[in-house]
Structures are given as C-alpha cells and as structure tokens.
Design a protein that fits this description.
The structure is a homotetramer. By secondary structure, chain A is α+β, with helices and mostly antiparallel strands. In chain A, about 25% of the residues lie in helices and about 25% in strands. Chain A is globular and about 70 Å long. Strand 11 of chain C pairs antiparallel with strand 11 (about 240-245) of chain D.
C-alpha cells in the first residue's frame, strides 16, 4: 500500500497537489496526549513555501483543520485526522504534462502505472506538497518524544559542493538556513543563487540526529532502526540515499578504526566513537542516532530539456514554466526531522510491549 | 515485528546461530510455481562459509529441508517453510560475550533490549548466519523473476579504498570474487589479505542491478521501490548505507546534469542517462534499477579491543578468538541479490492487483 | 490498530459523532475505476437517519466530499479520502455521560481504556454514525463488484421474535423495509412500534448473500472468507454474532445432512444444498456466499436504567433523553452489505496475485 | 495472507497433513518469558488424536521440537519456532481425492484456487492436524496470561441436540469430556456413538470464557475483541458461527432486558448481567468475556456420498475409507481455548502501548 507507514502507529497520507485537500490520519497516539498547536504550526512553517528567496512563490495558508481524534487539544483515542485545503490550484499550468513528462519527475512512471488515470496536475499524489501532512504527523511525534527527553535535530550538511563545518550538537531550528557554520551556509546560498540564475538547481545532504534515546529501541533484522528510518525517509520526494553513522565512509575503513570501543562515562556504558550511528544490530545503543539523507537537485528547472511525447513517441523539447525551488534541501530538512520522529516514536511504542 | 518482511509475499526468518536450526517461511508464492533445487542450492553456496581464503572456517552442510509448501518441486499454496540445521555449534567459544560485549556487534544492544535473556552464543538471532534463509527465500524469487525475464546481478564495487572499474552489465555469478575488472579484484583481495595479516578487517560496497523490469512497479510515497529495497537490505548485517542511481553523488550535481532526459529507443521510451537508478516517484521507469549498499568492515577482528564488563562496569580488554571473515563483502553480495529479488517480486505481485 | 481493515485494500475510518467531520480513506482501488456518485449516494441514503418512523430525528445532509483520490469521477491511484461534515452536533445532550455510563454502550469501557480523554459526546468514535463512511467505502466496492458480475443482497431475517419467510434471491434494495415477505415485514414493524411505545427497543438479524462469486476466493486458515467477513462485520456497532450457511444450526445436524453433495448443473460443479454458505476451507465454492448477523436491541432506551457514577461509585438511575432508533436493524442492513462488499473485494484483489 | 494472525504478536502456521513437518512461528513474546513444557504438552495432548473412542486412530508422537527462540526454557527474543514431524503419512489413502472431492471438505475449493497444485493428501494445509501448532502457540499464551491472573476455560455446550446444563465457572481441563453436567455429557456421548454406528457424524457448540481480564482491552471498530477473536476462531476447521454473550439470542430480546445494568461490587464497577459477553464497543468491561463457537459435524463420514469427478464432470458415489472422528468437538475445545488465548494476549500487549 503506498501511503501508509508504521507498525505501532499508523500514518496514512492522502491528497494530491490540486485535489480539494491533502491530509493525514495518524492512529496509535495514546489518548490523553496533548498537542501544543502553536508549536506544531511553527514546526510546519519551516517547510512551508514562499518563505524566502529559495522557495516557490506558491503561497497558501496551509493551516490544518483537525477533523478527528481530538477533544480540545487532547488526543481522545479516535484516529487523528487533519486536512489542509488546497487553495491555490491553477491546474492549467500543468496541462502540458499530460503527454510530455518532465525529466526527474514521476510523470512518466505514473503514466506507466496508472495508465492515464493519474492526476498529473502539480504532480498529483507525488507532489512535494504531500510532505505537509508528513510534517504535521511528525510534528506531533516530536512533541511526544520531547516529553520523554528525546530530541531530533538536523542541519544542511551540504549543498552542491559545499559542506557544512563543525559538529551538530543542538537544534538549529531557529535558523532560516540551518547550518552549524554560518560562513558555510552563506557559501551554500551562493550556490543556490547561482543555480537559479542559470535556470538550474542543486541538491544537497541533510544530517539528522536523535538525542536522548534510550538503548534498546528497535528490533533485529527487518525491524532495525535503519530499516524503519529508511522506509519512511525514502517517502520524501527526491531522496536518493540514506546512510547511518559513518555510512559509506565505513566501507572504506578498517574494522579497528570503524568499531566503536565501549567505555564508561558517568557510570553508563557508552562508546568512544559513534561510527555505527547509535545503532548496533538494528537496536539503539544509547548514543546519538545519526543519519544522512541525500537529496537530488530539484528536477523542475527553467532550462529546456529533452522529453518524449507519450502519445506520439516524438522526442520534444520541454520548458517548465512557473517558479520552482532551485534547492529543496532547506524545506526538506524539517521533513527529515518529521520522518525520524515518526520512526523513533513507533519504535518507542513497540518497546513498551516488551516490558514484562 | 523483527523478522518479517513483505506486503504481497511475507517472509519470516527464524533461528539463532546456535539454536537447533534456522529457517524461513515464505507466504504468497503462487501455487504451481516450480523450484529448481540444484539452481537454488548453487545460489546459496555463493554465501556459504568456508569456501575460500576470505571466509570463516565454520563448515556446515547448510542443506535446507523443505518441511512445508511443496508437493515434489512444486509450490502447493501452503506456506513455504524450510529449515537448516545448525550442526557446528560450539557455544563455549562465546561464553565470554555474556558480560563483555564485542564492539561493532549487537551484544550490548541485545543486552539492553532483552535484559539478559538473549542468546549470546554466536550472535544469536543477529548472526550473519541468518542470511542463509534470506538467500533461500531470495533464491526462489530470483527463479520466479527469471521466468518473467527479470534478472538481478551484482558486483563488488569496492573493498577498502579499491574501486572496481567498468560497467556492470551481465551476471558475474560464475566468478568467485565478482568484480568486472579482474585486476581490480586482485587488488581488493590484496587489501583483504593485508587486513587479515594485521588482525584487522575491511569493508566495501556492493552494487546491484535489476534488469528487465517493466515500468510501473512500486508505489508512491512509503511504497516506493527505494523504500521497499532499503527496508529489506538494512536487514543484512553490517549494512550502513543504501543509495539508488547516482545516490549521494546526485546531491552534488546540478539538476540539468542529474535529470535523465527521455528519449525513444527501439520504439520505447527510455532515458539517456540513469541517474535516478530506474526509479522515479518510487516507481520503476523500465531502465535498470540500480543501487549500492555500503558494508562496514567485519566487526570481529583479532586485535585487542576496549570493552566494558556489563556486570561490573569495568573497562576491559577484549580479544576475540576464532577465525572470522576479514571482509564479508564477497559473501554479502548474494544476500543483496536475494534481498533485491524479494523486494522486486513483492512489488511485481502488487502490480497484478492493479490490472482492471 | 482500531479503525483499519484490509489486506489488499486498506480502509481507515476516522471521526467522532461530534467532531468537525467523519470520513474514510480507502487505498488499493485500481486507478481508472469510475464511481457512479448518484448510485453511491442512493446506497448511502439507505442507512441515513431521519428517513422514517423507525429512525432517529437527527437530520444531516451527510453528503461526502471527496478530497483525495479522484480526477472527476475516476480513481487516480492516490488514496481515496472522503469526509462528511458533522453539522448537527449538540454536545450538551451528552454532558451527563461523562460520569454516568449508559448500559449497553461503550461509555464505561471507553473510560477504562482512555482514562477520561475519550470524546463522550454522542458516543465519540463508537457512534453508529461512523457507519456512514463504512457505507461510503463499501458502496464503492459494491460498484466495482457489480462490474465483475458480483452482487450483494440482504434482508431483515428477523426482528424480535418475528422471522421473515421465503428465500432471499434478489435485491430488496428498493424496499424501505427489506423483507421477502411483506406480511412478515409488517409484523416486524409492529414489534418495533410496540417497543418504542414502551420506551424500549428490539434487535434482529440481517441475512446477507453474495451472488456471482467465482470459486477460489479466500485463503486457508486465518485468511478464510469467514475470518475476513467476521473481522469487518463485528466492526458494525451492536453486532454480537455471525454465522455462515447453516451456522449454529449445523451444530445440531448430522454430517450426512449437513454435507453439501456435489452435482453438475449446466456443465458446472455445484452443490445440491448450501449448508456451508458457499465456503469450504475458507474458500468460495461458487455457490452463493451466505451469512447472518445478529444485532442486539438498541441500547439507548427511554426507560430508566441502573448505572454507576464513575467518579463517586454511587449507583444511580439513568434516563436517556433524546430520540433514538427503537430498532437499528433496518439502517444496519446496508452496513452489512457494505462490509461484505469490502471483504469480498479485498479477497478478489488477492486472487489476482495468484495467477501465474 | 493465509496463515498469519496477530497485530502485536504474529503467529504463522505452516505445514500440510502429509508434508515432512508442521509447525509455527510466534513473534512478539517478550524475552525472558519462561515456558513450562510439561504443562504445554499436557495442554496439547487434549487435542491429540487417538486418545479415546471419539477420535481417529492416527497416533503420533506430536512432540514439538523448538528450533528457534529459546535459551533453555526461556524466550530469548528471536522468533519462537517449533516443528512437529509428520510420522504417519500414508498418502495412498488419499489418492482418490485428487479427482473426487469430499463433500464438506476443501478438496474442491482447493482445486479451484490452486489449479491442481494443492497437496490433496490428508487435506494438505486444510487438515485439522494444523490445529496442533495453533494449540502450541495458544498454550504458550495461556501460560503468559495465567501469569497475569487471566484464565481461559471452555466446555462442550452442546452436541447434536443435547445441551449442557449449569454455569461454566471453572476449568474443566481435567475432564476427558468437558461438560459441566456429567449426565448431559453422557447423553452427548450417546449421540456420538449413535452417529458412529450409523456411519455418520454430529456437530456441536463450544462455549469459552476468559476470566480475570482487566477492563479496557481491545479497540473500537475493526480492532474490537469480537473482531479479533472471530478472526482467529474461524481459522479452526469446521467453525461456522461465533457469538458473544447472548449473541443470536440478543437479537430476540428487548433492550431493557439485554442491556446489562451497571452496579458496584466489592468497590468495583460491574454489570448485573453479562449479555454483552464482557465486551462493549469492542472493549472489555472487566466481566468474563464469553463466546460460543458452532462446529459443523465432521464432514468425513462412512456413508456413501454424491460427488463429481473434477476431470470428467461425471457424478459419482464417494466412499471415504479410514477412521474419522464422528464428532470433532471434544478435540476442537482446546483449539478454541488456544485461539482465545492468542487473541487476548495480543490485545494485552496492545494495551501496554497505550500507557502514557
């Protein structure tokens, strides 16, 4: 099933870019949990469009309406459902996509799968807009995790060829462009501006950490934290890679370097290094859970591109009109946090079943 | 749930390194499917230990016994269950692990999760030995896929700092060390031998391709091919990263370079490049599905390592006895093929439901 | 998870009696399927309140708004989501229920489960109103089944002590009180009127048949058609029993009478009798699938009842104000049809995966 | 998927009547749980064949071998897998079934579903023998429930036209023919003997109670205790009906009689009657959970029956050789207890997730 995630919670996301509304249902949140809506909306605003020079001009209120699951601000046990109206849905902009698929988008594969029935307007269900309900659900889990002393933080680790510097150790949520090094952040923004000026786009990497996790979360084999996080993170459009801890670098290391030696700190077993990203055998070891997510450059670019008319099989040149984010990484960052929060909260509920 | 995978098939893996047996149950294989056992066992032998200088000396028959699901060599509709006896299970080698966890292994996290009830002998359910039933299940799917013209091929893309050269285009299954370039393969083996000589180990990367896939497999969002493949591949021990197509490299590209232009070849819509790894919006586009999997170096090394006695909280030095693979990548390669086959076959069955 | 059903489709129902809206998400309907909305709304009206003397005076438009999954009237592949606004939600009528649970309702058990966080207004998520989205989803499946020559028909088999007469063989959908025998129907209505006059209520039985089913649907063991149908039918409030074919009567028969002998009719293998209700080993045999569903009498009655104040633990007398259906069976009947349609359609999609 | 059950535990049953072995995998049992094997085997013996005059002469050791999930007698966290060898598998007795389906059995529907690939020997995966692993899994849950003060008891409520008398209030596990009234039990045995003498068989009803349950177990809608129990109980061969509390009788009652008034006993809220079977809104109310299960008469009878040759479409007379239970109810009774234990234990684990 396409749009459902979770074992102990169940998230279901619905809607298309230009359907009457988008939204989500989240089951499994314990009754009695309270939601801080101001905080939730502030979190959601971090992925909202139209906020700065790097994002699309599409402006929407994007205020969710909770239609199920609450009494006041308290979760009542019924499934939590919220919808967000699509108010700015000029479908005519997309009529050309019906036959001429955009490279890097799902237009062609949707046609192959749905045989013409797909909603091609604005990318339909494949639109990045569908990350709004993901952030809504994840934002709720972030609050519940905070109540257990667990926090999720992220940074832009790279944009194009520019890497951030310094260690990620506390939340950068207040920053509009969340890098540890402001200088590096400025360089990244130059790369984005240059891409935009050239009718082009750039990709980047988001690094995410979950702090305050107890050891013992997750399951062996297919229920590992890596499996759970990857299974949701690849649901964010444009993600093409996920690595945990040292990740692909570990593949170039020797075991004597990559293995994280155990030590005792403050009467607690920790590891001296954290190349494993806080996960051994799929299960958290109590160190920060760390992972990195690769985003491809925005596929919508102003430059002319080669495509093929799906009806006539003629090769044609495609020009995408409208304004598009030259780099989605800043807006994708809270989506990664949301995804991590959902995966971790799910595992946390699973942990409760194991207590004897 | 830890050890279950699949939506249209359901794979369940059971057993511990030193329990009476390990095995798997696979539900959802269409009745009437025939299994070529010779071919299946040949496939499984590719991951078997004790085959060459790079693998452990533990030798077992590892012949599966099918106890359910077959009439002769034909799938009858009941769940397919096969078991593999553990015949060489000297638990005494592992008695020290009860209190002194091995760095890079699940000993510590299993203790945190199971509170001492875990089977620490040989890594228990976390043992690499559990990939034998994975290969058993995947080997069956490989045969079923072959019947639909779909093949899964893989190579060792790198070991330590040595990268393979050339393009992966056909099966290297006959090679005992499957690299495209034999010269590079020889260099990699040198790295492995050097690591072993130094009481150390090395990691590497496996690259996998699925050829002959129809366009239209997979689902949007959490049901994407990336999500499905990642969710199973991270179930192979020591995997720390997965990337599709250009993966992390795409994050450094511009959109105009990374986007794969559509073209017509032999009357069929294809893409000129394949940076997306054959997947757009989670759905196959008919080009080869390509992904790369990062394996950390074998955590079991001969060198002394720092650990902590979990009972006394004293820091101690740990020396791991016994022989261990200085590089698991050669034996992990068929596991990646098996995992890919399972994920793809599951998606293929899902596709059948969509036909009207 | 409470409110989710299905293996090849996935139905998720949300909302409370007095939340802003109720609704459903249905995944897995093949793209390109068309919905006849007039027919769908006519079906939904059969369970709508306020239609006749036997149902509550609560009047609502109950017109669903589809917010996801459609392009025009065609399913586009995204999850189908529809919401129905709650417009007549006078919560004050229910304020007493917070501490004084109504016998036969979920007020007490919801308090035990949710610890006071539950939405007690109108029964919250337990309200019979939540069968509206069930009928919405089921109504869609009914149309898709009709396209395959499969129909679902039902009758009121009994109300109180009055049984219907005659064999159910064609749809009674046009009847406002669907019994085969009008005379028996009139008697049942007398029983309902008498109950109402006495400030009381009556229960009854709905009999349902699925016609035109191919042989071979369903799975052995926990995937049997009985399991699937029971698992959804008990989701309709007030259902306390389900039996297939001869059901509980079979338990009093001899095998020589209960066994359905095979015969050939029109060149096709059928059975002479149908005590098995068209299901053997969980799998359809091509005869009509028949089952009966027992509904308890409406728990909301005008008469004074004994209850206990959950805060003070004092026994108190409860009087339920407002008007309530003295018999829910007529409105429950389309819910049974909807549930059957969902279960059967799910099994039908499952069948497609088995084709080689 | 056919043979899998559970949300918080996952039970998977495999094997055929005449395959090398049958067995089960049970995931989700908390590590550290201890199994009393003597007690488990005593429970399993209650459904074993060949014990008395009412059951088949097929005698097997039926001793399970645990191949995964244990260290000694303690659950270690890996999936629990046990197999039971099939040692008495004379397939020649069944060769005729390939073309001539037995009335009341799954021979015909299996042919329709599996197209000839099914294992027809001994009923294959549809055999009542597959209830042995069900009892194995359920027996483990019964022990875990007992540790929480929860017990599951059952009786033969009726055989043919003879009903038991008296109230079921304590375990009848010591009785070889578990009725409350020994006199009624003797009458039932007469009916069974008479059926056998006439080459025929009889059905019956099993009543089951779960005592000691906390209030608050189960979920609304499709996650109700009725849904969960029905979904597993219909997995026992020959079950054709399930009712909770007053069940089908409730459909003939008035609300004022059927509603269970709340009262206070020993400082605890209870109900004066228990027509709801301890379940309101799908959730336990703390009273005994009661349900009844209808079993059809054994379909294998000595008398000649009408059948149809599936190859030639000729109507033929079938005579079933071999000895068969003239009444399966006594052996089915522990299966009902096992099924109840699995469903309740699953719900109990689910309850743990809800705690804040």
């Amino acid at each position: 099933m396409s749009s459902t995630y979770g074992e102990n919670i169940r998230l279901s996301i619905f809607g298309q870019s230009h359907s009457p509304a988008i939204g989500m249902t989240l089951e499994g949140i314990p009754a009695g949990s309270r939601i801080d809506f101001d905080r939730l909306y502030r979190f959601m605003e971090r992925r909202a469009p139209g906020k700065n020079e790097y994002s699309t001009a599409r402006r929407e209120k994007d205020m969710p309406e909770f239609i199920s699951g609450l009494v006041g601000d308290t979760v009542c046990g019924a499934p939590l459902t919220a919808i967000i109206r699509n108010t700015d849905t000029r479908s005519q902009d997309y009529s050309g996509l019906r036959v001429l698929p955009r490279p890097g988008h799902a237009d062609f594969t949707a046609q192959m799968k749905y045989g013409g029935a797909q909603d091609y307007a604005g990318g339909g269900h494949f639109s990045g807009r569908l990350t709004a309900p993901l952030c809504l659900a994840g934002g709720i889990c972030l609050q519940l995790l905070a109540g257990e002393g667990i926090s999720v933080i992220a940074r832009i680790a790279s944009v194009a060829d520019v890497d951030d510097e310094g260690e990620l150790s506390e939340s950068l949520a207040e920053k509009s462009f969340p890098t540890v090094s402001d200088k590096r952040g400025a360089l990244m923004r130059e790369r984005i501006a240059a891409a935009r000026a050239g009718g082009d786009s750039v990709g980047g990497v988001v690094e995410c950490r979950v702090l305050g996790l107890p050891a013992g979360l997750g399951d062996p084999m297919f229920g590992g934290m890596e499996n759970r996080i990857a299974a949701i993170v690849f649901g964010i459009p444009a993600v093409k890679g996920v690595e945990f801890g040292a990740g692909f670098s570990a593949a170039r290391m020797r075991g004597s370097v990559n293995n994280d030696p155990f030590c005792v700190r403050d009467g607690r077993i920790e590891t001296l290094t954290n190349n494993c990203g806080g996960i051994l055998g799929g299960i958290t070891d109590g160190m920060p859970l760390t992972f990195r997510v690769a985003f491809k450059p925005t596929p919508s670019i102003a430059r002319a591109q080669r495509s093929v008319n799906m009806e006539t099989l003629e090769e044609q040149t495609l020009e995408i009109r409208g304004r598009h984010d030259p780099c989605i990484v800043p807006r994708a960052l809270p989506c990664v946090e949301a995804a991590a929060a959902l995966a971790v909260y799910d595992a946390l509920l699973g942990r409760k079943k194991e207590a004897r």
